[in-house]
């Protein structure tokens, strides 16, 4: 539990977290309510702290308008400094991007947030002095480069009481034990081992303390190029095929160095392609997927479509909505990433081939693809703790540069790329296509994406395990508080009380029946049978026996062909992907088995909950998917109550307080923006498009005709 | 998958309805656009074309009512060389094409072509629709669903301001209107006749719906015959004023002309037009910018191009946008929202028309009524709505669908009713608990819009239907549906009275109805059954099971208690005991 200081005086004061300091403030600020296009607003105080920008309503009586999913750390009028996307000033009705020093101060401040909220503050009635202070304060603290140690994370960690929930089921992958267990869980321990070579970060600061490599790879080999060119294990499939990743060598000018590196790689490939290892397929993600730059450009355009200033803006873009979406290319990138993940799945699942993902640092697209493959193939990754462990394994410990990619410190725009959001959006596509296959809800993914910008958790505020470890000790700063104890985002109780946390759990999810050892086999068999395709070998454990029976000659032949540098999918029969895809989709879905997303154009959708949640025009009163979800929750509660009652009848106990307070869910009143809706439109006025008329240029002759040509004037004569 | 209500007799290769007779059969190759050529045998009856593959793994079955066939073409000639290039190409009204390859020898193709043409287009061959041969029996009689008098009574009509008139009993006033009409109490039948002279095809303003609280009404009609010279008609002007006054409010009468402004103006050239401000000072006119039937037909054609047989892949969204299909849906919904909102919160009566008042007008009035009156969101209520606003008020189903007519290029054909059903689907998608019926209900209606198995959608107007004795000689589609209601029921439906339901007519919400338009593509098929629905049904079953067991437990427990009731029993236990026993 986080303690929140209660306001001392009657006057409105910001609620400050431990370690949070008020930096500047301005009063008589109006916050516009963007609900109905009117210029209505509420008057209050705008403050900036070392953690957030907050608007404090003078009339704090409006507390009953609280969102259903109340965040304990960030109120509905709070914007963490890291959540600020862009700040615009309005001068004489003209919008201007505010970045550095200002000569003139604006009448209006528009803050666009990374969680897609848009705030409009009117400063016309504020004292000039205060305007200067608050505007430059906000810009300085949210938009200018910062030192890592200046992140609120550190102030908070040194001031907050240390009482993290230790019962968290998420595997953090910061110990040897965690990796060993993962190897055991996936039966990867026959061919792969955890290495401690990087203890003290003596190989590389980019690699985690512990990681897993093929058993045959020696310590010297790992040391040779600081871990580059070493296949690092991500996960093993039930049939023994493994997913590996490798950090590539940078483009070498020097020919002899390049030669040496090539020889080194050839050696590696040879070693790990020999039995007991499966055939190996490599995939250079930097050439087969869009670049980080492409991804950043696409997302920048895409999110802009949802940062809407007013109603007129909304309707003006509505007619061209589909082509606007398409022109950003974001959905196409999602499609390509999902397709790539399916290709990898096909190799692992059907061809029993190891797949080695290659990328410059193996910490961006490698993370996306390896996570997606696991979400699709390993139903454990579709549970909440399993998914969180996956994020720890592939991203947090795996060394994804969250700090740089999110540009939390504003140190370099060039490094910014929404790689983790790309993963979440891809996972959302799966969640919406297979709503019963995940233990968590889309709301979980949405609040997880919001948590990227909450600097009280260390999870998304370091570039690597090394960076976190060296900054945890607190050696450099004046603080004598010793090692910091950071919170992890996976402790959801920090942000949400149990009632709100219920929104993260999927009522449609049916847990996998817990198998004991003997049952496990049958479950796996079923799994395989369901996936069996013409090419699949259904012999028991085909992969190991296979090579032993073949002659060396044959092995060389196949391997020679297979491991030629960067074999891509064109090497296979061209329809192998399509065949796998169609064959899987023609069978009933096993929610605890393999999941293959549909990737046709009609199936890749806008993550509406995240992107449209603050836009009042799209709100449906009593509609949206929440309407049916609420019915299911109600029914579940009823069933639970009946269960309790039955137990009581069995024991004939006198009834206690069995009627637990049901959540207030009058489905007629719920908005489709639930649980994020803050808008309580009193009237039932429908949203009406303001601009609808569009010329159908290409059909001019048809447009001008009448339905049926009859000259009515003739019979009037 | 089998068609509903079909009897599959054990000894027969194909399903057959009572009254359905075999005509011919032949070995063909079905050129499946998804899985390649399939050898099979095609059976033709007076109702359907049925194909069954010769191989059983997997069995390929096609079951196509002949009514959905729009066009039959011969492909390839006697000299065609390519494999499977000789045969028949069939275009269907339900977003698919069928192609059969035949052997070139003999007259095999000519025979099958003639048989198909004859039975697919009975109207062009002086034959009766299959609906007149259909001998199915149902437990419900769908013809009883709609009774205009009881529907008006449900609305609280007639009352002191609105009366029922039988002036059109023999279709003398207007041959495309129903016999029973509701008009202002203060307008005499003589007035109506005079107004009819000034309205296109005599389709005078009559009442469709009255708001139960504020008494504002939705009226429908056709365009006024203003013409180039700007003719005026005192009777029409007075009649509209009577309508305005009838709800007791002093607000202006709102007229919604469904057409784009320019088209309304252009109509003056052929004698039509719209209500000018000069002639109708107490009315406000708005144009709703909905395009004509030709634009809608072309739009659907473009949509078919991008979804059949293959779904456009690389630029799906912009391709979809370029068909304008959803844009038209948006405009129709926007218009209906305006009508509904004006009546409900604007408290003003509205008059809706387009040119003739049987296409766009029917869309607008019926959708507005669906938004305002929750009765129409039930299965029976929706049937009444279709029966009333579409069938009885003369939406020209025969012309728009081209039932049994070989003239596939007829400019009168247009997917206006499909567009309406699509709008309903969009609403049900946005409000998944507000409608008693499910998606299957809407798809079934569309399937039988074309099938000609029922009399429901046959012919252009009530007067013709009466002449053809449709209700006596054919069955109603509602008989099929109401006899098996559970199949068409939405489990999430929760009844809500008097709640206006406004969809959001934004592209952010509108989506292509994949389960209808792309249902033939096996790659796009949605998960069946829907997991959310499945879970809900499981929970319902679980709840019922618990309730039953709980009841049993309580009975046994109570009997135990009563057996030992001599011992100390608390008063509250006594109470519950008493309550249980009586």
TrEMBL record, chain A:
What name appears for this protein in its UniProt entry? Myotubularin-related protein 12
Q: Where in the cell is it found?
A: Cytoplasm, Myofibril, Sarcomere; Sarcoplasmic reticulum
> Where this protein primarily resides, as one coarse class?
cytoplasm
Similarity section: Belongs to the protein-tyrosine phosphatase family. Non-receptor class myotubularin subfamily.
Q: Which residues form the Myotubularin phosphatase domain?
A: 173-611
UniProt source species: Asarcornis scutulata
Q: Which UniProt keywords apply?
A: Cytoplasm, Sarcoplasmic reticulum
Q: Which Gene3D superfamilies match?
A: Pleckstrin-homology domain (PH domain)/Phosphotyrosine-binding domain (PTB)
- A UniProt-annotated Pfam family: Myotub-related
Any single biological process term in GO: phosphatidylinositol dephosphorylation
Q: GO cellular component terms?
A: membrane; sarcomere; sarcoplasmic reticulum
From TrEMBL, chain B:
Pfam families registered for this protein in UniProt: GRAM, Myotub-related
Q: Which domain of life is it from?
A: Eukaryota
Q: What is its EC number?
A: 3.1.3.95
What keywords does the record list, in alphabetical order?
A: Cell membrane, Cell projection, Cytoplasm, Endosome, Hydrolase, Lipid metabolism, Membrane, Protein phosphatase
Please list every transmembrane segment annotated in the UniProt record, as residue ranges. Answer: none
Task: Indicate which residues the UniProt annotation says bind substrate.
Answer: 292-293, 354-360
Q: What class of enzyme is it?
A: hydrolase
**Its principal location?**
membrane
Extract the ranges annotated as region (Disordered): 560-582
According to its UniProt record, which reaction does this protein catalyse? 1,2-dioctanoyl-sn-glycero-3-phospho-(1-D-myo-inositol-3-phosphate) + H2O = 1,2-dioctanoyl-sn-glycero-3-phospho-(1D-myo-inositol) + phosphate; 1,2-dioctanoyl-sn-glycero-3-phospho-(1D-myo-inositol-3,5-bisphosphate) + H2O = 1,2-dioctanoyl-sn-glycero-3-phospho-(1D-myo-inositol-5-phosphate) + phosphate; 1,2-dihexadecanoyl-sn-glycero-3-phospho-(1D-myo-inositol-3,5-bisphosphate) + H2O = 1,2-dihexadecanoyl-sn-glycero-3-phospho-(1D-myo-inositol-5-phosphate) + phosphate; a 1,2-diacyl-sn-glycero-3-phospho-(1D-myo-inositol-3,5-bisphosphate) + H2O = a 1,2-diacyl-sn-glycero-3-phospho-(1D-myo-inositol-5-phosphate) + phosphate
Where the record annotates domain Myotubularin phosphatase, the positions are 142-517
Biological process terms in GO annotation: mitochondrion distribution; muscle cell cellular homeostasis; negative regulation of autophagosome assembly; phosphatidylinositol dephosphorylation
Tell me the membrane topology, using the record's own terms: Peripheral membrane protein
Q: Which GO terms describe its molecular function?
A: phosphatidylinositol-3,5-bisphosphate 3-phosphatase activity; phosphatidylinositol-3-phosphate phosphatase activity; phosphoprotein phosphatase activity
Q: Where is the active site?
A: 354 (phosphocysteine intermediate)
- Annotated Gene3D superfamilies: Pleckstrin-homology domain (PH domain)/Phosphotyrosine-binding domain (PTB)
Domain Tyrosine specific protein phosphatases, chain residue ranges per copy = 323-385
Task: Quote the cellular component terms of the Gene Ontology held in the record.
Answer: filopodium; late endosome; plasma membrane; ruffle; sarcomere
InterPro entries annotated for this entry?
A: GRAM, Myotubularin, Myotubularin-like_Pase_dom, PH-like_dom_sf, Prot-tyrosine_phosphatase-like, Tyr_Pase_AS, Tyr_Pase_cat, Tyr_Pase_dom
Which PANTHER family does the entry mention? MYOTUBULARIN, MYOTUBULARIN-RELATED
User: What family is reported?
Assistant: Belongs to the protein-tyrosine phosphatase family. Non-receptor class myotubularin subfamily.
Know the name of this protein? Myotubularin
Species, as recorded: Asarcornis scutulata
Q: What is the lineage of its organism?
A: Eukaryota, Metazoa, Chordata, Craniata, Vertebrata
């Amino acid at each position: 539990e986080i303690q929140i200081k209660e306001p001392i005086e009657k006057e409105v004061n910001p609620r400050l977290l431990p370690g949070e300091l008020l930096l500047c403030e301005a009063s008589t600020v109006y916050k516009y309510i963007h609900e109905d296009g009117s210029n209505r607003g509420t008057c209050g105080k705008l403050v900036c702290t070392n953690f957030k920008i907050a608007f404090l309503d003078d009339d704090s009586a409006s507390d009953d308008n609280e969102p259903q999913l109340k965040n304990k750390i960030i109120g509905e009028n709070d914007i963490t400094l890291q959540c600020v996307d862009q700040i615009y000033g309005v001068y004489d009705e003209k919008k201007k991007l505010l970045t550095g020093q200002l000569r003139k101060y604006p009448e209006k401040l528009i803050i666009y947030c990374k969680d897609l909220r848009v705030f409009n503050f009117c400063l016309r009635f504020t004292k000039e002095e205060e305007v200067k202070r608050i505007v430059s304060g906000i810009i300085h603290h949210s938009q200018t480069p910062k030192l890592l140690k200046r992140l609120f994370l550190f102030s908070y960690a040194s001031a907050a009481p240390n009482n993290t929930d230790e019962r968290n089921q998420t595997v953090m992958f910061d110990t040897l034990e965690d990796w060993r267990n993962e190897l055991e869980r996936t039966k990867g321990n026959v061919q792969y081992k955890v290495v401690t070579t990087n203890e003290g970060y003596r190989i590389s600061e980019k690699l985690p303390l512990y990681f897993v490599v093929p058993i045959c790879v020696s310590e010297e080999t790992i040391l040779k190029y600081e871990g580059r060119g070493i296949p690092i294990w991500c996960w093993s499939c039930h049939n023994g095929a493994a997913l590996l990743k490798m950090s590539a060598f940078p483009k070498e000018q020097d020919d002899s160095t390049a030669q040496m590196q090539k020889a080194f790689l050839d050696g590696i490939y040879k070693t790990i392609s020999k039995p007991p290892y499966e055939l190996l397929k490599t995939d250079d993600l930097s050439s087969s997927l869009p670049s980080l730059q492409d991804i950043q450009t696409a997302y920048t355009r895409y999110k802009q479509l949802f940062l809407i200033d007013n109603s007129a803006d909304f309707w003006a873009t509505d007619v061209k909505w589909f082509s606007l979406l398409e022109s950003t290319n974001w959905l196409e990138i999602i499609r390509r990433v999902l397709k790539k993940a399916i290709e990898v799945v096909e190799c692992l699942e059907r061809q029993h081939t190891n797949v080695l993902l290659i990328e410059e640092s193996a910490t961006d697209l490698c993370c996306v693809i390896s996570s997606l493959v696991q979400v699709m193939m390993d139903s454990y990754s579709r549970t909440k703790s399993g998914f969180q462990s996956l994020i720890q394994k592939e991203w947090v410990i795996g060394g994804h540069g969250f700090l740089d990619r999110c540009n939390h410190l504003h140190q370099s725009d060039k490094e910014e790329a929404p790689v983790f959001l790309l993963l979440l959006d891809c996972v959302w596509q799966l969640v919406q296509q297979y709503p019963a296959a995940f233990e968590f809800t889309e709301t979980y993914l949405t609040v997880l994406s919001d948590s990227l910008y909450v600097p009280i958790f260390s999870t998304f505020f370091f570039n690597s395990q090394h960076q976190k470890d060296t900054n945890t000790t607190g050696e450099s700063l004046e603080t004598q508080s010793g090692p910091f104890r950071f919170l992890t985002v996976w402790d959801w109780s920090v942000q949400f009380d149990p009632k709100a946390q219920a929104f993260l759990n999927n009522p449609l999810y049916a847990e996998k029946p817990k198998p004991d050892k003997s049952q496990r086999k049958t479950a796996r068999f079923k799994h395989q049978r369901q996936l069996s395709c013409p090419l699949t070998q259904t012999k028991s454990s085909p992969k190991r026996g296979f090579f032993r029976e073949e002659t060396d000659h044959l092995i060389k032949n196949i391997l020679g062909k297979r491991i030629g540098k960067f074999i891509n999918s064109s090497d296979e029969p061209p329809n192998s992907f399509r065949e796998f895809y169609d064959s899987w989709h023609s069978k009933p879905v096993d929610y605890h088995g393999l999941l293959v997303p549909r990737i046709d154009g009609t199936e890749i959708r806008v993550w509406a909950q995240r992107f449209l949640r603050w836009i009042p025009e799209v709100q449906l009163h009593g509609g949206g998917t929440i309407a049916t979800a609420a019915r299911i929750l109600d029914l579940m509660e009823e069933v639970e109550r009946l269960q309790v009652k039955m137990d009581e009848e069995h024991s004939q106990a006198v009834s206690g307080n069995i009627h637990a307070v049901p959540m207030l869910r009058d489905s007629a009143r719920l908005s489709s923006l639930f649980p994020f809706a803050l808008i309580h439109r009193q009237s039932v006025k429908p949203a009406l498009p303001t601009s609808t008329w569009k010329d159908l240029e290409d059909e001019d002759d048809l447009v001008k005709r009448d339905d049926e040509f009859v000259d009515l004037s003739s019979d009037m004569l | 998958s089998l068609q509903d209500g079909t009897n599959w007799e054990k000894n027969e290769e194909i399903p057959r309805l009572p009254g359905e007779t075999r005509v011919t059969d032949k070995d063909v190759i079905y050129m499946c656009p998804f899985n390649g050529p399939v050898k099979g045998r095609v059976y033709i009856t007076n109702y359907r074309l049925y194909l069954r593959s010769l191989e059983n793994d997997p069995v390929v079955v096609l079951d196509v009512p002949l009514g959905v066939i729009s066009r039959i073409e011969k492909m390839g000639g006697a000299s065609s060389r390519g494999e499977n290039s000789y045969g028949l190409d069939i275009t269907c009204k339900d977003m698919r094409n069928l192609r059969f390859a035949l052997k070139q020898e003999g007259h095999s193709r000519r025979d099958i072509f003639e048989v198909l043409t004859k039975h697919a287009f009975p109207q062009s061959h002086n034959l009766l629709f299959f609906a007149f041969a259909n001998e199915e029996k149902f437990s419900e009689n769908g013809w009883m669903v709609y009774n205009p008098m009881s529907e008006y009574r449900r609305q609280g009509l007639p009352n002191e301001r609105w009366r029922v008139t039988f002036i059109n009993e023999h279709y003398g006033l207007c041959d495309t209107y129903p016999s029973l009409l509701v008009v202002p109490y203060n307008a005499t039948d003589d007035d109506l006749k005079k107004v009819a002279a000034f309205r296109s095809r005599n389709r005078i303003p009559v009442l469709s719906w009255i708001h139960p609280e504020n008494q504002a009404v939705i009226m429908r009609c056709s365009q006024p015959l203003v013409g180039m010279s700007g003719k005026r008609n005192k009777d029409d002007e007075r009649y509209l004023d009577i309508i305005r006054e009838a709800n007791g409010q002093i607000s202006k009468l709102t007229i919604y002309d469904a057409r784009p402004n320019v088209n309304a103006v252009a109509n003056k050239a052929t004698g039509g037009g719209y209500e000018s401000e000069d002639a109708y000072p107490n009315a406000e006119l708005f144009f709703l910018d909905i395009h004509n039937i030709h634009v809608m037909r072309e739009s659907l054609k473009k949509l078919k191009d991008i979804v059949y047989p293959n779904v456009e892949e690389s630029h799906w969204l912009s391709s979809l946008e370029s068909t304008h299909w959803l844009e038209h849906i948006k405009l129709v919904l926007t218009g209906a929202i305006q009508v509904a909102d004006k009546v409900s919160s604007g408290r003003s009566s509205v008059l809706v028309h387009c040119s003739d008042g049987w296409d766009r007008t029917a869309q607008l009035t019926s959708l507005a009524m669906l938004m305002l009156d929750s009765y129409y969101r039930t299965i029976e209520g929706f049937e009444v709505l279709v029966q009333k606003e579409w069938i009885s008020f003369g939406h020209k189903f025969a012309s728009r669908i081209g039932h049994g007519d070989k003239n596939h290029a007829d400019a009168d054909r247009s997917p206006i009713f499909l567009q309406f059903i699509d709008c309903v689907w969009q609403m049900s998608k946005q409000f998944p608990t507000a409608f008693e019926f499910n998606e299957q209900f809407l798809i079934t209606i569309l399937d039988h819009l074309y099938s000609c198995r029922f009399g429901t959608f046959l012919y252009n107007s009530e007067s013709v239907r009466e002449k053809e004795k449709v209700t006596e000689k054919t069955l109603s589609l509602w008989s099929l549906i109401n006899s098996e209601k559970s199949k068409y029921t939405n489990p999430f439906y929760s009844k809500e009275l008097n709640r206006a339901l406004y969809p959001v007519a934004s592209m952010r919400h509108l989506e292509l109805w994949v389960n209808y338009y792309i249902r033939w593509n096996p790659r796009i098929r949605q998960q069946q059954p829907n997991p959310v629905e499945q879970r809900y049904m499981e929970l319902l079953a679980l709840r019922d099971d618990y309730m039953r067991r709980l009841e049993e437990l309580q009975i046994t427990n109570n009997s135990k208690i009563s057996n030992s009731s001599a011992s100390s029993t608390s008063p509250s236990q006594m109470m519950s005991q008493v309550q249980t026993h009586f």
